[in-house]
Design goal:
Low-confidence stretches: 141-152, 159-206
Radius of gyration: 24 Å
Structural class: alpha+beta
Largest sheet: 3 strands, antiparallel
Mean pLDDT: 74
Distance between the termini: 29 Å
Amino acid sequence: MTDNYAARDLATIAHPYANLATLPDQGPVVMERGDGVYVYDSAGKPYLEGMSGLWCASLGFSNAELVEAAREQMARLPFNHLFAGRSHDPAIALAEKLKDMAPIPVSRVFFCNSGSEANDTQIKLVWYMNNALGRPTRKRSSAASAPITASPSPALRSLACLATTPILTCPSPASCTPPARTITATPMRARARKISPPAWPMSWRR
């Protein structure tokens, strides 16, 4: 069964942070179950999972309380998105708790799936805020570079308020004034750099 899992894995999955040249010979480690701080592979060998499943199982594996909570939620509402004004009570309760825990006043909580998405969203919010406030941006071209000022719109100005100030201090779009400091969702700084494509092993090229 282990060999079957390994063969099926190698035929279908590309693993991040794996040496694609040696993986076919070494084979993947197929995990089968978890209990507490340990995970067990398909041969029954235990591993101390010090990274908590990449920080997704910080309360341990096979936690009975989490299993029951997941069962109840799956039976009631397995999933729903937050796009276009949709919401649900677990998201609202978590957002309230996060705002209470934040070290400085926070306007809104934006849920996303990864650090990459968090940084991408921060950059877009800055773009929208500057457009809403009519601040000049610079468009690069081969001919010339000239400042382009965006005309503020009520919708963009409202978004600028949400991106920069606590909602209680911004009763209307017209009275929104950006503070001296804004909150960011991650301490990472976005850096533009040229990334060369990886040198894939010849055996993985098609």
